[in-house]
Amino acid sequence: MATFKQVRQTFLYHQLLKFWGNMVKNFDYDCCDNDFFDVVYNNFDHDKAVELIEVAYTEKELDKMRNVKCRNRRLDFADTLDDVFCALWNNEEGRDKCRAVLDAIREYLEADCEVSDEDFVERRFSELVRILKLNELEAELLLFAYVRDQTCFSWPLHIRDRDKPLYYAMALDRSFDEVSRAMSPQSRLLKFSLLDSDYDFSNSTLGGFMDGTSDEAIAHRFYTRSKEKETLPWEFFGELASKDGEMLKRMIAASGGKCNILLYGAPGTGKTSFAHSLAKELDRAVCEIRQGDEDGRNMESEARMVGIQVCNSQESASDCLMIVDEADELLRGSSCGFSLFGIEVGGGKTTEKGVMNTILDEMKIPAVWITNTYPGQMDESVRRRFDYSICFERLNHTQRIAIWRNQIAQLGLEAVIPEAKIEEYAMRYETSAGGISTVLANVKRLNPSADKVNDLILTLMKPYCKLLGVKAGMGFLPAKDYSLTGLNIKGKVTLEKVVKAARNYLDADFGLDAEDKPRMNILLFGPPGTGKTEFVKYLGKVLDRKVVVVKGSDLLDKYVGESEKNIAQAFRRAESEHAILFFDEVDGLLQDRGNASHSWEITQVNELLQQMENFDGVMVAATNFSKNLDPATMRRFTFKLEFGYLDDAGKKSFFERMFKTSLSKAEFDELRLLRNLAPGDFRTVRQELFYLGDDVTNLDRIAALKEECSVKKDTPESSPVGFGG
After folding, report:
1. pLDDT by residue (tens digit) across 451-469?
2. Quick one: which of 675, 629, 676 has its CA closest to 528?
3. 1, 34, 29, 33: which is closest to 150 by C-alpha?
4. I want to staple 68 with a disulfide (CB 3.0 to 4.6 A). Which of 18, 74, 471, 495 is the partner?
5. pTM for this one?
6. Counting beta carbons within 10 angstroms of the beta carbon of residue 276, is it exposed (0 to 12), middle (13 to 18) or buried (19 or more)?
7. Sign of the CA dihedral 532, 534, 537, 542?
8. In angstroms, how far is CA 719 from the centroid of its own chain?
9. Residue 178 CA from chain centroid, whole number
């Protein structure tokens, strides 16, 4: 904290004397803190002050104060001036004379200070008031808070934070009622954190601008305005652009200004890129609310709220689009388990919902708010203030290819990354746009030779995927030696016929006059290891379709309603990628509603059944426990295929194909004795014997298969459920 002698700005000095003089005029209690008189102590001559005191008081009055027993009332001219005036003030009989002496000193100090042209602090503060559109009282309150923060101004006694509005009123020579209203929690000074929760000047919000450590204009401290930023082509967003994007363009054009748009979903799904492309499509400048200060530190939510208000007041509704990225903390409401002004409760920082409601209501320009927050974590009153919202799903294969192409072109890497590799990378790495951009930027920086680029991409992608939990691989493909031969499918419909039916479904052009809405939902059930999953891999390969694999555990969510949204999202993703949708372990999602103990268990089944009815693609579900499925489920499946344990012919076929050997009659007789033998057992044994590395015979292999069978529970499905076509 600076003393008066250290404050060189004339504006600040004059304001300080004014506020201190008002406090001397209006305060009428004992002074408990002699620092209140540092104004005199730091700036006025001791002997001259004594002369003024001796003129104002009689000798009798001075003698009486010299003999007071109480130390903070006993006058001693040998003390420093702050102690001298504290003693004078606390002798109530002579307080008015003390006021007169202090007022005379204040007038002397003001007259002694040279009046100069508008100085640095005055210019900064004037800009602040203009940009933030503060009224006279708000400006005066904020200025007083800044004076207190920058100088030796001290309260005359120790006060509680909640009592500060009363003392602000004294310092401003204003009524308490008008000051308390201007400093209420609903006021702009507190809602936008110009004052902090203790009613002090908010250095985190405004300090860098006022103290000169930042030369940026106040508006540009909080947001940046640009129109030249590189964006993805509008066509890249496909259906999102043609449907949601077209609606947004119409809404913004018709709104005349205010239009709050929410983009939400998982990180890395293209929300920010979409917002920037939308601005370019509208031929509007992007006004992006800053997330960090000039030193790279993250800005507090309060500072970002000020930025939103500044941008809203400065920019035109006709030629800009505000983008509030990473708005998670701003949009979470205190009623969702969080509290006011960033206090961490329940795992996150938030803003009070009333603040956000006011901001959203007072928007004058179109704004896009981007968040990874679940809608359920936002207060309902905040959510309903958005004019339009879009949930962003994970990137599909087609979008990843487009991002690879776009980034390669932007970085000029076309010569070293051939087109054939792009599809491979998009298939292998289901990462976000940010991951692709990061890896390619490092490839550009490291500048490898053309023959080393592929190895470098693989090297860079491996730790990135591991860090973010992204599975890397070449897709959901069957084993190289996979064959339908030998599988034990019970019933009249063979797997070959099911493959043919699925191909016919995908190739058909169903008109509006079709008798029934066509669907291709396939149920695979039977004991573990009997070939259900491998068949789905095979189906994807022969139909040349990607397989989107979903497990029940991936979709279940602790938030009410979110599991249903996840189910719908899985269907939308598969449909947008023209992929086969494979629900593994579907019994967790399609359990019998008659056994449900919670309402949400029923709504999940209802949602899945509805999606199955309307899905425009091939959906496959697999379970080991078909008896647990809801009875209504069976009607939704076009084919129901039971995979059983291998019969004798199947055992021989799998043994000779997997181990690349022939069985003698005696060996085959030994193999036939094994019960509950499944295709998966052969792969397990093959891997086991391979890693042991010893020479093995067919009898060794049979013994190992016997061991696999012995650890199984004998739980085959006791009754088939029938087959349909």
Report:
1. 899 999 999 998 988 887 7
2. 676
3. 1
4. 74
5. 0.56
6. buried
7. negative
8. 49
9. 39
